[in-house]
Amino acid sequence: MTTIEVNTGRRYVVEIGNGLLSQLGQRIKRILPKAQRIAVVTDTNVEKLYGGQLVHTLCGEGFSVVLFSFPAGEASKTGETYLSLLEFLADSGITRSDALVALGGGVVGDLCGFAAASYLRGVPFVQVPTTLLAAVDSSVGGKTAIDLRAGKNLAGAFYQPSLVLCDLDTFSTLPQEVFSDGCAEVIKYGMLGSQELLDRLRMGALTCDLEGIVAQCVAMKRDIVERDEFETGDRQLLNLGHTLGHAIEKCSAYTVSHGRAVAMGMMLITRSAVKMGLCPPQVLDGLSALLTQFSLPTASNESPGALLSAALGDKKREGGQITLIIPTGLGQSIRYPVAVEELPSWIEMGLFE
Fold first, then answer.
1. Are residues 199 and 344 in the same domain?
2. What is the pLDDT of residue 313?
3. Can you tell me the distance from the alpha carbon of 232 to that of 235, in angstroms, rounded to the nearest whole number?
4. Are 190 and 255 members of one domain?
5. pLDDT, tens digit, for every residue of 133-147?
6. Which pTM value belongs to this model?
7. Cβ distance 130 to 104 under 8 Å?
């Protein structure tokens, strides 16, 4: 097992390894000794696989456990589901000394975390990511949110978990497409700051050293978040591929998954950076080869106008400016503020060869 400390406003650890799900009750008792009731929040897919097992484990440690499950998918990350969860917590008698457990992927973690941040003005919660994408990205760092009609993650809070427990055994039940979604975020970390990670991915490290790869990504995110917990500077780097990726998701009515949208977003912004003379052409070639290796898309069929309209609603926009994250090398990326009126040309350059 690998343990990584995260020293933010609330200090916590990320535990990564096999067979950890059965130990969650013991971990919660250690870090939250006053907790008596646990609300497990999950989706319908994960509930069938691990919901009963986790409830049994927690009950075995003496907790009173309730379970809230919602239809799987981004379409459920709404104000309606969020309010239903808050009402459920109130009806279940969850108090400030109790805890929520987010069991699932990024949608579950985002929704549960936002509920934890706002219910009773803040109750502890534990992230138990069951997807590669959630393990390396959304479960760590304290970003919680729901979607609005205008765009993704537009209502939320920075609220750190009390513990992140990543049981790698849960990845064994992931469909290949869902696992490859997570690979997009892993590649993102390599593009941000580690050519060595990119080289390891090319050599098949995700197969032979999954724990090491997850731990490396979590440590990279930890380092950035500790420098900039509330995303006023360096943390924006983690948005590589996300501005246009989120736009692609919105344009598709969220039928395109987050990982695939981020893959396309990284390609679009890298292609534009090459055309602007900010990035060597071999970086685009290397990124394209890696995405293809992990069965991820390298192009989008969305129109420039549709992407522009969606991107203008991005939460990273500040007045007449938006900060793009662009690669300048393999393992090197920078923040690059552009005027909103320049965004159409960036999108067009990225969409077309």
1. yes
2. 78
3. 7
4. yes
5. 999 999 999 999 999
6. 0.96
7. yes
